[in-house]
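Notes, p. 3: input format for complexes.
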Amino acid sequence: MTGPINLAGKVALVTGVADDVGFGWHIAKALQAAGAEIILLSHPRVCSIVERFLTRDKSATERVLPFGVAGEFKPRALIGCDVGADTLDDIAPELRSEKGYDGKDVSIEGAFKAVRELTPHVDIVIHCVAFSPEIAKSLPDVSRKAYLMAQSISSYSLVALARAATPLMKGRCGSVVGLSYMASERAVPFYGGGMSSAKASLESDSRLLAWFLGEEGHRVNIVSAGPYASRAAKSIGDIGTMIDTTAQKSPLRRAIDAEDVANAVLFLSSDMARNVTGTTMYVDAGYHAMGV
Ligand code: NAD
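Output follows (292 residues plus nicotinamide-adenine-dinucleotide):
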C-alpha cells in the first residue's frame, strides 16, 4: 500500500482473531495491506480453527487484502495466548492439558517468549479481546467471579499486554489500540456479565497507559465500535436489534461494518496519528452523539 499510511518494516501483534468475521481478522488484514508483518496471538482453544481460516479454499475470498493490495492475508505466525494468564502459574492445572493448551506455556509471558524468538521488535499491539462467562446475565445477577473474570480478560489484559510489549517497542514509537463499546459510559441494560464495567476500566486504563508509555514515545488509543454481528456479539443477546437501532438513530442512519473499525485502527496505528494518544475514537456512525 502506498500513500501516507505505510507500515512497511513494522511488526503488529494482533489479539482476538478466532474467525474471519470478527474485528481482529479485518484489523490484521488492513495492517498487513499497509505493509506490517502480522503475528496473531489467539486464544489457545481457537488456534487450530484460525489455522483453517488461513489455509482452506472456502475462506480464500475472506483472505483477500483490502485497498486493492495484491496478495492474501498471511500472518507470519499464529501463537496461542490466553490473555487471562500473566504466567503459566495463572493457568489452572486442569486447563493445562486441554486442547490448545497442550501443556505449553500459553500465558502472556509464554506467548511473548515465542514472539521474541520471531522478532527483536514490535511496533503495534492490538487488544481485540473480550469475554464474560455470564454475558447473558444483567448486572444485578452477575456473580463476583464472572465480573472479575470479565475485568481480567477484557480489561486488565490491556495493561498486561502493554507491559509485555514495552521492552520490544523500545525506540520504535509504538502504538497500542484497544476495542471498546459505548456501554462503558451509557446504560445499555442487556450488555451484561460485567462487560460494561470492563469496558469503562479499559478506556480509563488506556488514558493512564498513554501517560506512562508516552514517556517513551508510545501511544495508546481506543476505538469504540458500534454494534456488529461477530461471534462474541451474538452471545450478548439481540445483536440484530442493536444494529437496527443504531442504523435508524445514528446521524448517518446506517450500521457499521468491520472494515470501518479496521480503517480507524489502521489510522491510529500509523504515524499519521503520531500526536493522537489517550483518546477514544467512535466508529459508530455517530450514534454516541445522540441524546434521544
Ligand atoms: P470476536 O468474538 O471475534 O472476538 C473476541 C475475541 O476474544 C475472540 O477471538 C476470543 O477468542 C477472544 N478471547 C476471549 N477470551 C480470551 C482469552 N482469555 N485469551 C485470549 N483471547 C480471548 O468478537 P468481536 O466483536 O470482533 O470482538 C473484538 C473486540 O471488539 C472486543 O473487545 C469487543 O468487546 C469489541 N467490540 C465489539 C463490538 C461488536 O458489536 N461486535 C462492539 C464494540 C466493541
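The CA atoms of residues 89 and 127 lie 22 Å apart.
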